[in-house]
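Cast an eye over this sequence plus tokens and explain the fold to me:
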Amino acid sequence: MTAIQPALDGTIPTTSSYAEWVDDVRPAFVTAARSGRRFTTYEIAKEHELPEPPNPRADWGNFAQSLVRDGLIEHVDFERSSRPTGERSAVSVWRGTPAARAGRVA
């Protein structure tokens, strides 16, 4: 996976479909899950300069839940968002499952 380059205005472009977006961003989350570290989706997206999904308000949450269903990540906590939205709302903190950390799930 290669990082998506920001547009001239500094924004990260979106991809055309949810399926394409998942293909682009999933490898970064597999790597994070295998590391055993705790993370938020925003931290991984920022760290890897991942593109925004077609529907950011719904797709990030749907994607995280698909990773849970796939046995890749598990919810471990809530923390205040570090995203520069000004809201500082509570967000989920994730960690790779034991199977993901052992490399049995991807």
